[in-house]
Amino acid sequence: MDVNYSLIAELPDLKFDPEATFELPEHFLGSLEGKVFPVEMDFIRLLWFQKFNRKLAAFFSGRLPNNEPLPGLNATAFYTDNEGFHQAPAYLKKMVRWKERQKEYPNETLISQKLQEFHYGQMRCSKNRFLKCWGELELNRLNFLAAGRCEINSLDKEEQLIKGNGYSELLHDFSVREKIIRTEFSVAPQLEIIIEKINYQERELAMDQVRWDMIDEINRFEYFTVDVLLGYFQKLLLLERWATLLQRKKPVNPVELANKMIKEVHN
Length: 267
Fold this sequence. Notes:
Layout: H1 2-9, H2 25-32, H3 38-48, H4 53-60, H5 90-101, H6 108-124, H7 129-153, H8 166-173, H9 179-183, H10 188-194, H11 200-218, H12 226-246, H13 254-266
Helix pairs in contact: 2-3, 3-12, 4-6, 5-6, 6-7, 7-8, 7-11, 11-12
Protein name: DUF2764 domain-containing protein
InterPro entries: DUF2764
Pfam family, one: DUF2764
C-alpha cells in the first residue's frame, strides 16, 4: 500500500490531448519493476499486450513471420510442445491450442476475433477490478461498432462479433437501434452519435475521449490502489496511439491516416 501511495502521489496529471507530452508506456512499465507486486505487473502487462494483437494476428495467420511476436516471448513459445509455452499469458495459450485444433488454416479475420475473445476474456475473469471493468467495456464497444457496420453493410453478425458475454449475444439478436442495446451499455448513445461523423480523425478523437472518460468512471472512487496505476497506464496507451497515428514530424497523408484509423477500429 505504501509503495502504491508513493507511486500514485507522484503521477503527473494527464489530459486527453493528441499533442500532449507524456511518458512512453514502455518506459512507465519499466519504472514499475520492483516497485509493485509481480501479480500487479502481470495486470499491467495484460493491458500493454493489447497493442500487439494486430501483430500477433498476422503472426498466427502466417503472414508475418517474427522471432518475437510479443515482447519477451520467442516465436517458439507459441507451440504447445515447446518448453517455452508455459511462459505465454493464459489468453495466448488458449489461442495456440485453438489454432492447433483447427482442421483448416483459419483466415486472419477469424484469428483476430479469437485473439480478442481470449484476451478480453482473461481481463474479464481477472481478480483485478479495473481489468474486469475495462475488458467488459472494451468488448462491448468493439462489438457495438461491429454490429453497426454489419447492419449498415448487410453483413453477417456471426462473422463479425467477438464472442464472450451477454451483450455480444444481445447485439446478435437485436438491432443497435433497439432500446435494450442502449440500456445495457451506457455509452451506446454516445457511440451512435460519434459514428455519424464523416471526418475520420474527429470520429476517432471522439471515440478515444469516450474511452478516456470510461477509465475515469471506473476509477471514480479509487485513490491509492493498483487500479489507479492501471488506469493511468491505459491512458498512456491512448496517448501513444495518437502520437503514432499523427506522427507530427512527417507530412500527414489524409488517406493513410484514415486507413490506419480504420484498421485500429477493426482490430
